[in-house]
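Predict the 3D structure for this chain.
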Amino acid sequence: MNRLRSYRAIVLATVLLVFGHVLIMPMSVSASSSAPPTVPETIAVPAGSVLLFSRHAKGVQIYECRNGQWALHAPRALLFDPESYQAVGSHYGGIDHDLTPGPWWESADDGSHIRGGEALSAPSPNANSIPLLRLKVLEWRGTGIFTLVTYIQRLNTEGGVAPAGGCQPSAQRSVPYTADYYFYTTP
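Done. Predicted structure below.
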């Protein structure tokens, strides 16, 4: 009987060792850099756009109290390569980095970064999740991976919705979220 328990413990430890890293990976494998995703028409990129790459984001949506209501302050997330699972960049609000206010994406490898705006949205199919988005790139800085990007889609959102109820002036709350960002260029 003790030998059977020991055997089960060894098998369980081996399974966790071999497969456990999949369970704790910092990203989902839904982002893909090979094929454009199917999206609601309201957030489709212009015809002829070409998918350059995608990144999975894991972080928070930061909300602040304005006039007794929760309002989005800025995102703060790490960007992960969907194939290597390595952190390769960040996503943040310009307001927190002495940049033009709005959402920014930055490459950890080459320092290039872009700001999105002119957002179109669609509801997320996931309950209690921030909307899907299409953003047009309005500003480029540096040279590198983000240099050719003209449109961004935020898909596969999970979480990130503003807190419910009222709030006290100057209060802030960070709400965890994940999403996949798809980066396109137009000819």
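The radius of gyration is 19 Å.
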